[in-house]
Amino acid sequence: MYKRLIVTISLLLICIVSSGVKAAQPAKGILYTKPLESVIFSHHAHAGKDVSCATCHSGLFEMEALHVQDQKDFTMDSLYKGKYCGACHNGKKAFASDTQCARCHLGSNAATPQKEAPAYKMSVTLGKRDKDVVFHHEPHLKKANCRSCHNALFQPKEGAAKINMAAHDKPQYCFACHDQRGKNGFTSNDCSRCHKKSPAAPTETIKYGKGAKAVSFKHETHRLSDGCKACHPQTYAYRRTETKIDFNDHINGKSCFTCHAPKGGPAFYDCNRCHKDKPAAKTPAYYPNTLKYKTVMQNVYFHHASHAVFSCNQCHPQPFVVKKGQTKMVMSEMLHGQTCGMCHNGSKAFSARDCARCHKK
Length: 361
Known about the structure:
Blueprint lengths: L1 H23 L5 E3 L6 E3 L1 H4 L6 H4 L19 H5 L42 E4 L6 E4 H4 L5 H4 L56 E3 L6 E3 L30 H5 L37 E4 L5 E5 L27 H4 L24 E2 L1
Antiparallel strand pairs: 1-2, 3-4, 5-6, 7-8, 8-9
C-alpha cells in the first residue's frame, strides 16, 4: 500500500513538472498590452475556412502589428460594442469578449511570445498564363511595410486585384511605386523584371482605323532595343483604344511618325507600306478622288488620280497643307512658281496660264 502511494505521488509530480515545463514554453504570436495587459494573438489560431486576411484587414485592423494600440477607442468597451476583436467575439461567431476573459488575458503568466511565421503568403501570383507576375513580399518589406500597400493599393484578398495594361501608366497597384520615373523602384517600362515567362507585349494584330484604310500593327516587328518604353506611355497609351491617329500626325511627327519619318522631311512618303488597300501609284483611299475649289474666276477641279504618279511628299505638307481649304491660292502666286505653279510652269507640266485646263464651267 505504501509503495503504491509512493508511485502515485511520483507520477503526480512528474505530471505537474511536465505540465509546468509545457506551460513555461512561450506561445507564438503577437503580444498586446492594451486595452489590458498580456493578450497573445496568433494569426494561425484564427485562420480558418471562413476567415481570411480581408476578414480583419478591411476596416477592423491596420496591416501593421500593434498599430491599433495607438487608437484611443481601442478599449474593452469598444470590443463589447462590436468593434475590433468584438466584431467576431460576440458570442455568435466566436466566444464573447465580455464573458470569457481568461481565454485571452493571461495575466502575469504571459511571457513574450515567439515570433510566428507571417500569416501572408511569401509569394503571390498575379495574372494568368504567360503574362503572370510572381510577387514576393520579403524584398518589398525592406523599403516598405504592410500599410504601404494595404488597403490603399491592394485589398488583402488574393485575386481581388485586376491589373490590366491601362493601369501601368497610372499611380495605382504596383505602379504607385514602379512609375515612369523609377523613384521608388525600377520603372514600369522594365517589363522583363516582372514578366519572366515571355514579353508582355500582345501577340495579336492591332488595327488602327476603320474599313479599307485601317493599318495593321504587330509588336513583334517593332521590338526595339529600348523595349516597351520606346513607345509607352509617352507616344502611345497602353490601352489601344485611347490612341487616335489622324492624318496631321503624318506631318507633325506624332504617333507612328516619331520613328517613321525621314530626317528633316515629312513622314508619309511610302503610304502603301502600311495602307494596303491601294497600290502607291493609285489614289490612296484616304484622299477624295476629286477636290472642287471655288476661286475668284471659275471652279477648279483637282484630281488626285491624275497626280498619283508622284509621291505624297511632293506636295504635302509643302506647299499644300493636308487639310482641305487651309492653303490659300491666288493666280498671281501660281504664275510666279508658287503652289500649283511649282509644277505647272510649262516645263514639268502644262502652264498655269493655260486657264481652261483647270477652270471648268
